[in-house]
Amino acid sequence: MGSPLTQAGLLLVNAIGSLVLLIVMLRFLLQLVRADFYNPLSQMIVKFTNPLLIPLRRVIPGLGGLDMASLVLALAIQYVIMALILMLAGYGTGMPFVAMIGWAAVGIIKLLISIYFWGMLIMVIASWVAPGSYNPALILINQLLEPVIRPVRKIMPDMGGLDLSPLVVILGIQLAEILILYPLKQVLQVPSGLIMGL
């Protein structure tokens, strides 16, 4: 179980690491979907990530519209978090470097799936309780999710004004988690509770 100090350390690493990782992945996704740069939340994300990303971009160029520097930074953060967790858990420095890179990649996939799952859930609830809201967070979530929802909406039959495409996307996200994430965890033998993700 570990000492109270170890438990406190693990809690801090998990909480702070998850938040930083989430912000970096949001930077990658918002740039990918060309979200509104002037949205206050976009500005906050950019200001938070720029000190690390600007120097990294000098070394790692973009690739086909993908912000590779953000992805590399997210992988590095995931790796550092896992290393800290393992050290706090008493494994010292004898950690499998190559395996941990694979574990970090699984963590990024898990976080991406979680971002889209929770984003869809928030949008569905917001459409019931605050339709047409101009809240900056909801606008940003909508911009992030629209490229995923739009193709599904096009092939869905007309339901008389009832849009079921978010529910179909949520189902698709859960299937992706079962069919992609779980097998990857099995193949790479990812220790339970080690990778970050919402």
From TrEMBL:
Keywords: Membrane, Transmembrane, Transmembrane helix. The keyword Transmembrane applies. The chain crosses the membrane at residues 6-30, 68-89, 101-130, 164-184. InterPro entries: CCB3/YggT. One of its GO terms (cellular component) is membrane. Belongs to the YggT family. PANTHER family: PROTEIN COFACTOR ASSEMBLY OF COMPLEX C SUBUNIT B CCB3, CHLOROPLASTIC-RELATED, YLMG HOMOLOG PROTEIN 2, CHLOROPLASTIC. This is YggT family protein. It comes from Thalassolituus maritimus.
